[in-house]
Amino acid sequence: MTYFLYSDFYLADLGARDPPTLHPRFAEMAAYLARVAPRGRLPGRQHVDPCDLRRVIGLLNLVQVEREGTALRFRFRLIGERQRLAAGRNIAGRLVEDAVLPDLVPRIIANMTKVVTARRAVYDRFPMPHEGREFIDSERMYFPLAADGETVDVILILNGYPEAEQGLGVPAAYAAAVQRR
Description:
Blueprint: E1 4-6, H1 8-14, H2 24-36, E2 60-68, E3 71-79, H3 81-87, H4 96-99, H5 105-118, E4 121-128, E5 136-145, E6 154-160, H6 162-165, H7 172-179
Helix pairs in contact: 3-7
Pfam family, one: PAS_5
Protein name: PAS domain-containing protein
InterPro entries: DUF1457
């Protein structure tokens, strides 16, 4: 069994093609979270030390899971600096439906809901449109965190920009941030 599931949307996008090899940062994050988690339980935000994540901290988002009866809502709490620069805006404090373009809301909410219900990481990759800008090829792995070790209450999202990392189509602000690493 792998440490993650694919987004249903991503699998539909792939059709009959096999998924490409993922960037090693995703497996490294999964290994880190497994190492800091209490035995047999999910790690919580309290187990994650930002100093351990210096290499990727600018690509991280933290999303709070809000429960209203059986309904789930997702609020961005922390947006990494490189993530914010690549997107060209700060969405901290906003609910998903207020933070992303309406066409992407069902996809992102479905991915986050899958993380909460499956209690496993979920991978997705798609061109992310930003208002007034071109599409940015982006990938992300949503990782579950649970303060009590069981109930997912935070989702840690590790983002990546494959084209930017290969030097193609790099937004100027993102390129500057990458060069400062």
